[in-house]
Design brief:
It contains 17 helices and 16 strands. The chain has 459 residues and is of the alpha/beta class. The chain binds 3-[O-phosphonopyridoxyl]--amino-benzoic acid (PXG).
Length: 459
């Protein structure tokens, strides 16, 4: 229950007692946090009664949309029946069994076993331990190194933050941990050097081959990547990239891992992002859309080959108090069942996704400082650039993106600035009329943003 307080009272208590993630506390407390009090469908309301269009589905996660009473009723029923029991020591419970069976149905062939965590980060750390354990069991304990991409994002645990390629995270906490390497991201717009996307995709994939040969294939455990880099700014690789990555992984006996925390559960119009690009990972990580953010839960989908390898090794000494938590599992089951049975993912693929992509390209193709307008399904972005003709970016990466994001916020539209990439990833239940509202507001904001850039002499 929420105490009835004024916005100012909530802000003052928040400033006094709450440390926010990825936040400069002093800076936030000077302006105060925006107090979000309720939500429904694709809309949020703040404590001053403002109605906000949530173009980011929370943090890329509320795939089914807000306000689903069927999910809250499932949570209540499960909590009343069995609020908690663990899945250690040879016990299980109906909620996690039913979820596991459903997930084995919606997962691609060859993924029949799921390990549960509480977040995407924990799923990534679990995967790191799994792939290293797999190679131990296979008699190749030297294969410990995992390779990720610069500007990839894999969470904030020590493993996830190390595997991610965000340098500003590595600077805090003496990261990366040993055994983690990175290759450049497949960002065609920035690195194409006159190559077509298709040519560039193969070149970028072969950066992985060079790194494997530099380290030594007998030391490399896995390559890990998001099908589409999300928090890195919606970097969509050329179609030739992932098939070449897969070929290289098979050639050098390196496990291939897809981080599906954002791309999973319908974001791209497919159940999972790797299906869109036609590659076949040995494991993939998930969270976010698994429960649509209604309760924290993550998962590692373990391919049959790796599951068999782990089984040969006996005890896998890893897990969490809340692995397969009954209430989280019951809500995730109801969420995934609804995504499937209500045709929500199908509609993204065939209807609202294509509509969004057409409108998005029409709306942002003509601005002087907007380029690389891109997207698939209901994940899309554009980049604010200094010169479209030369692909010249703004010198102080992120400054213009922050200006633009704040203009969006003032117009009660939430989009994400990842550096100077402007990103949208709304709930998958967004209607065409709501897509029109999102885009029309965004066009107004970008128009205002370009005016501000001119006034400040940035263009
Ligand atoms: C691909 C990927 N992998 C792992 C994680 C970590 O998940 P958890 O946060 O549940 O531990 C993520 C999370 N992605 C994420 C999380 C928070 C903020 C933003 C942003 O874009 O601002 C993105 C992610 O996007």
């Amino acid at each position: 229950m929420q105490n009835e307080r004024t916005t100012e009272q909530w802000r003052a208590l928040d400033a006094a007692h709450h440390l926010h993630p990825f936040t400069d506390t002093e800076s936030l407390n000077q302006q105060g946090a925006r107090v979000i009090t309720k939500a429904d469908g694709v809309f949020l309301w703040d404590s001053d009664g403002n109605k906000i269009l949530d173009g980011m589905a929370g943090l890329w996660c509320v795939n089914i949309g807000y306000g689903r009473k069927d999910l809250s009723e499932v949570a209540k029923r499960q909590m009343d029946e069995l609020a908690y029991y663990n899945t250690f020591f040879k016990t299980t419970h109906p909620a996690v069994v039913e979820l596991s069976q459903l997930l084995s149905e919606v997962a691609p062939k060859g993924f029949s076993r799921i390990f549960y965590t509480n977040s995407g980060s924990e799923s990534v750390d679990t995967m790191i331990r799994m792939v290293r354990r797999y190679w131990d069991v296979k008699g190749k304990p030297g294969k410990k190194t995992l390779i990720g991409r610069w500007n990839g994002y894999h969470g904030s645990t020590i493993g996830g933050a190390s595997l991610g390629g965000m340098s500003y995270m590595h600077e805090q906490g003496d990261l990366p941990i040993p055994g983690i390497e990175h290759v450049e991201q497949p960002w065609w717009y920035r690195y194409c050097q006159g190559m077509s996307p298709e040519e560039f995709g193969v070149v970028a994939a072969r950066w992985l081959e060079a790194k494997i040969l530099e380290i030594g294939p007998d030391k490399v455990a896995a390559f890990v990547g998001e099908p589409i880099q999300g928090a890195g700014g919606v970097i969509i690789p050329p179609s030739t990239y992932w098939p070449e990555v897969e070929r290289i992984c098979r050639q050098y006996d390196v496990l291939l891992v897809a981080d599906e925390v954002i791309c999973g559960f319908g974001r791209t119009g497919e159940w999972f992002g790797h299906q869109l690009f036609g590659f076949h990972p040995d494991l993939f990580t998930a969270a976010k859309g698994l429960s649509s953010g209604y309760l924290p839960i993550g998962a590692v989908f373990v391919g049959d080959k790796v599951a068999q390898g782990l089984a040969e090794g006996g005890d896998f000494n890893h897990g969490f108090t809340y692995s397969g938590h009954p209430v989280a599992a019951a809500v995730a089951h109801a969420n995934v069942k609804a995504l499937r049975d209500e045709g929500i993912i199908d509609r993204v693929k065939r209807d609202t996704g294509p509509y969004m992509q057409q409108r998005w390209r029409e709306a942002f193709g003509g601005f002087a400082h907007v380029d690389d307008v891109r997207g698939v399904g209901l994940i899309q972005a554009f980049t604010l650039v200094k010169d479209k003709a030369t692909h010249e970016l703004f010198p102080n990466w992120g400054e213009v993106g922050t200006i633009c994001r704040d203009i969006f916020f003032r117009h009660n539209l939430i989009m994400r600035a990842c550096g100077d990439h402007m990103v949208a990833a709304p709930p998958l239940v967004i209607s065409k009329a709501e897509i029109d509202q999102l885009i029309d507001t965004a066009v107004q904001c970008v128009t205002e943003c370009e005016e501000v850039l001119r006034q400040r002499g940035l263009v």
